[in-house]
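Journal club prep — side note

Before the paper discussion, L.F. wants everyone to see what a predicted structure for a comparable chain looks like in C-alpha cell form. Sequence:
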Amino acid sequence: MALQIGDTAPDFEADTTEGPISFHDWIGDSWAVLFSHPKDFTPVCTTELGYMAAIKPEFDKRGVKIIGLSVDPTGDHERWAKDIEETQGTAPNYPIVADDDFKVSKMYGMLAASTSGDATERTPADNQTVRNVFVIGPDKKIKLILVYPMTTGRNFDEVLRVIDSLQLTAKHKVATPVNWRQGEDVIIAGSVSNDEAKQTYPDGWKEPRPYIRIVPQPS
C-alpha cells in the first residue's frame, strides 16, 4: 500500500556516504527531508544534489536534517559527489543512502516489491519512480509527499516554504493560504470556534466569509 500523509515513515538501517545509520535514530528530535534519485550520474539529479548542498544552511536554521537516496552503491555516490562539486560548485554535505538492494525504495513504495537484480545494471528509466520528496516530522510521521518526473528538476525552495508552514501550523491553530510566505497573514483553523479565537485574537480578525478568518501570523 502506498504511503500517505500521516503515516509513520518506515524505519530502516542503511549504509550512507557518512556511514551506517538507523533512520529514526538519525532523525532524532529533528524534522527531516528524504529526497530520492533513480540513478547516480544523471543530469537533473546532479543539479538537485548541488542545490540542496548550497541551501543546507536554510534547512539547518529550521532544525531540519536532509538526506538523499539513490539506487546505487556508496562508491558510486562518492565518485558522483566529485562531479557535483565540479559542475554545481558545492559537493553534498549531507548523507546519501546507498539503496542498491532496493530495500528503502520498496519500503517507501517507490519501486515494486518484486524488484530484484543488480542495481548497477538498471537504467534511470528502470528506476524513474524513485523521484520523491518526503518531509518527516519529529514524531516520525510523514507530513508531505512530492513525486516528480525525471525530466523536471524539483523546487526545493518550495519544500522550505512548506516546512515553514508545517512548523507554524504544528505550533499554532492556523492554516496558511495559497502562496503563503513567512510573515504573511494566516487563516484561523476551522477547528477553532469563534469564542476560542477571541481569546487568542482579542483584536479580532478579517472575515470575508464566516469560514475565512484572517489574522496576522502568530509569532
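L.F.'s comment for the group: DSSP finds seven helices and eleven strands in the chain. Keep this in mind when we get to the figures.
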